[in-house]
Each structure stands twice: as structure tokens, then as C-alpha cells.
Amino acid sequence: MQPTHTQAQKKIDGVEFPASRTRLVEYARGHGADADLLSAMTRLPDRLYRDPNEVGAAFAQVTGE
Question: 65 pLDDT band (50/70/90 cuts)?
Fold first, then answer.
């Protein structure tokens, strides 16, 4: 099953923004994200994200959600 932007947002709940893609992936990994979710997160554009909504929108774009 393909991960969703909602799952991504839940795994980054509590991260300090702004946050880079690398920081988001590390945070999600440390909070139990599975391999499929981490793989999708590594495809996010490499930039600073201001809030979880920006992450969710970018995640939906890269996964075709």
C-alpha cells in the first residue's frame, strides 16, 4: 500500500519548522516510519518546508495522491 500525505504528516508531528527534507526524513525515521514512507519522503523536493501543510502538499505531488 502506498503511503499517504496524512501518514507523512503524522510521522513528522512535533518536528520544528522550518525543516529541510533531510531533517523531515530523519525525524520520521526516528519516530517509526516504515520503509515505504521513508522512500516516498526522500523524493520530496530538497527545500525548507514552513509547516506540515507544505509537506503534505509536496508529498501528495510526488506520490501522485
Answer: confident
